[in-house]
From TrEMBL, chain A:
Gene3D superfamilies: NADH-ubiquinone/plastoquinone oxidoreductase chain 6, subunit NuoJ
Reactions catalysed according to its record: a quinone + NADH + 5 H(+)(in) = a quinol + NAD(+) + 4 H(+)(out)
Membrane topology: Multi-pass membrane protein
Localisation per UniProt entry: Cell membrane
Coiled coil: none
UniProt-recorded name of the protein: NADH-quinone oxidoreductase subunit J
Bilayer-spanning residue ranges: 6-26, 33-55, 61-80, 92-113, 145-167
Organism this protein belongs to: Phocaeicola faecium
Keyword Methyltransferase: no
InterPro entries: NADH_UbQ/plastoQ_OxRdtase_su6, Nuo/plastoQ_OxRdtase_6_NuoJ
Top EC class of this enzyme: translocase
Known role: NDH-1 shuttles electrons from NADH, via FMN and iron-sulfur (Fe-S) centers, to quinones in the respiratory chain. Couples the redox reaction to proton translocation (for every two electrons transferred, four hydrogen ions are translocated across the cytoplasmic membrane), and thus conserves the redox energy in a proton gradient.
Pfam families referenced in this protein's UniProt entry, alphabetically: Oxidored_q3
Source species, domain of life: Bacteria
UniProtKB/TrEMBL annotation, chain B:
Quaternary structure annotation from Swiss-Prot or TrEMBL: NDH-1 is composed of 14 different subunits. Subunits NuoA, H, J, K, L, M, N constitute the membrane sector of the complex.
Purpose of the protein: NDH-1 shuttles electrons from NADH, via FMN and iron-sulfur (Fe-S) centers, to quinones in the respiratory chain. The immediate electron acceptor for the enzyme in this species is believed to be a menaquinone. Couples the redox reaction to proton translocation (for every two electrons transferred, four hydrogen ions are translocated across the cytoplasmic membrane), and thus conserves the redox energy in a proton gradient.
E.C. number(s) listed in UniProt: 7.1.1.-
PANTHER family attached to this UniProt entry: NADH-UBIQUINONE OXIDOREDUCTASE CHAIN 4L (PTHR11434:SF16), NADH-UBIQUINONE OXIDOREDUCTASE SUBUNIT ND4L (PTHR11434)
Record keywords: Cell membrane, Membrane, NAD, Oxidoreductase, Quinone, Translocase, Transmembrane, Transmembrane helix, Transport
Record flagged with keyword Translocase: yes
Membrane spanning stretches: 6-24, 29-50, 62-84
Native organism: Phocaeicola faecium
Protein known as: NADH-quinone oxidoreductase subunit K
Subcellular location as annotated: Cell membrane; Membrane
Catalytic reaction list: a quinone + NADH + 5 H(+)(in) = a quinol + NAD(+) + 4 H(+)(out)
Length: 173, 103
């Protein structure tokens, strides 16, 4: 039983994702939380790459790690937040939150583990060709996605205009 | 040797419930938004993994993740604009201080 390089990469990335996502919600400083979120997003991009969806991984890196995290960091620096985010929690609330999270996680893990997924023999390490992605994205047949593509572009335009409108500085009359 | 599909699902479950925990416990609006991003990422991973392992000939999950990423970007832009505006009016970004809409 030999361990391939891909498996080693997957388990290292998985451990990194789990650790960083736990740290991102428990750390006291918000800038550190954003940094851990950046590592989680990098790991997610790597997982898409391991799955063979390299285009999706590239989109993840560009949009999330390149765009959203920068937006977060700028808005963190623009707003004044406390040095320490460890606020005093209501004990009953904390217990109920922990119970919800743990019971939910155990339930979901039980459902996935007892589902009995068969290990399909997918071609590991074979990436989805860019040509297929392009044809499916700009095609009008069944299982091709020209309409959602255009709708998303209109949505992005609308949200850009809306964000500018909301964040605009009011003129003092 | 292959990586079993369950291992991907365990990772995404851990990420999802970290997001839920953060969403319940955080009070800073930006930290809440970070937790929401964690949850969105977990669902995107699930879409891609189910697509790759269960229906490797089709591409629906792949494109659903792609559009999910685009919509997450849109949501983040609008949310951060709202947070900046709230900060400009209230000078705070904690959920306890934003009570104007409570009536």
């Amino acid at each position: 039983m030999s361990i391939s390089l891909q498996e080693i990469a997957f388990y290292v990335v998985g451990a990194c994702i789990a650790l960083c996502s736990i740290l991102a919600v428990t750390t006291g400083r918000i800038l550190r939380a954003a940094t851990y979120l950046l590592f989680v997003l990098f790991g997610t991009g790597a997982i898409y790459g391991i799955l063979g969806y390299t285009f999706l991984g590239a989109v993840q890196l560009m949009v999330y790690a390149g765009g959203i995290v920068v937006l977060y960091v700028f808005s963190i620096l623009l707003t004044r937040s406390d040095k320490d985010m460890k606020y005093r929690q209501n004990r009953a609330k904390l217990i109920s939150v922990l119970a919800t999270v743990i019971v939910g996680a155990v339930l979901v893990l039980f459902l996935t583990l007892s589902n009995g997924f068969v290990l399909n023999t997918i071609p590991q390490g074979v990436e989805l060709p860019m040509e297929t992605v392009g044809h499916a994205l700009i095609g009008t047949d069944k299982y091709e996605f020209i309409l959602p593509f255009e709708v998303v572009s209109v949505l992005l335009l609308a949200c850009m205009v809306g964000a500018l409108l909301i964040a605009r500085k009011e003129k003092n009359n | 040797m292959e990586i079993h599909v369950i291992h991907y699902l365990i990772i995404s479950t851990v990420m999802m419930f970290c997001g839920i925990y953060g969403f319940f416990t955080r009070r800073n609006l930006l930290a809440l938004l970070i937790s929401v991003e964690l949850m969105l990422n977990a669902t995107n991973i699930n879409f891609a993994v189910f697509n790759r392992y269960l229906f490797p000939d089709q591409l629906e999950g792949h494109f659903f993740s792609l559009f999910g990423i685009a919509i997450a970007a849109a949501e983040t832009a609008v949310a951060i604009a709202i947070i900046i505006n709230v900060y400009r009016n209230v000078k705070q970004v904690l959920t306890d201080d934003i009570t104007d809409l409570k009536g």
